[in-house]
Amino acid sequence: MDLGLPYDSESNLVTPKTDKPNVSKSPKLDCDHFVHMGRMFLAEMLGLGLICFTIVLYQPGQKCILPVPLLVGAVFGCVAWVIGPISGAQVNPAVSLSMLMTRRLSFVYTLVYIVAQVVGAMAGAWLGKICGPPSIASDNDVGMAFRNPAVSVGQAVGLEILGTCILITVILSTHDEFRANRWSQGHMSAFPFMFGLTLSLLSAILSIHSGGSMNPALSLGIAVANNNFTEQWIYVVGPLAGAIIATLLYELILSDGAYKERIKAWFTDPHFDRTKEYRVDPFTETMINTDTGLGHP
């Protein structure tokens, strides 16, 4: 049966298609780019839609034996594994903002991602309320994140910033082009596991204090479905601020590629290439600008 996949007659293996449009550049006005953008939109929408659907339907007080943090990590990990090859499984505007800041995602693609995430979150939450029992349909705060009354608004925002900082730092370290090979080999296969595990840990710690959302689209989508926006701005401002802080911290300090010439190119070069070193030869005082090879030994 011909599935329309590239085929290598010598190895008898299907070879993956590698000529996908570059999402770090603005899309061209052609069919290939629109099809690729549509697949990414659908992947992000379905991914966060499934997550919100699960969160709305899951009621831990009614004979549910799986702790909520474990459920959150598991469903995020599954979604990352399925849609990761299509869209990168960002499913979070905070992640998309970080990808925009690091020049991995163009402004147009960032808008596409965020719109898809918000639409998917609303659709998934609505579907969960429709498919669930009457107790879910009549509940106007089902699946929503709220701060503990003992925690002030400022503390809740701070915890959401901190949690998102940790999450974004883990994601950026997984994608770091300058990470040593022994740490980066197979990193994309490990991404769903690390993503899910990190979310489980952060959710377990933050959910009883700040609500532990760390995802503006998820909180907004469920809030729209419930028509309840009480203090939901916390879960928009906090995660977005956390993404900005974590991105600057990692790119300017933690990454092995954090040196003056490359940072300058990151901010000023419209054609900045993340795989280039941008080093200056101390003897000739000229830019080396060599390819990193995606990791050093």
From TrEMBL:
UniProt GO molecular function: water channel activity
Transmembrane segments: 41-59, 65-86, 107-130, 150-172, 193-212, 232-254
Chain spans, region Disordered: 1-24
Keyword set, alphabetical order: Cell membrane, Membrane, Transmembrane, Transmembrane helix, Transport
Record flagged with keyword Cell membrane: yes
Tree of life domain: Eukaryota
Name of the protein in its database record: Aquaporin-1
Subcellular compartments: Cell membrane
Family per record: Belongs to the MIP/aquaporin (TC 1.A.8) family.
Membrane topology: Multi-pass membrane protein
GO cellular component: plasma membrane
Alphabetical list of PROSITE patterns matching this protein: MIP
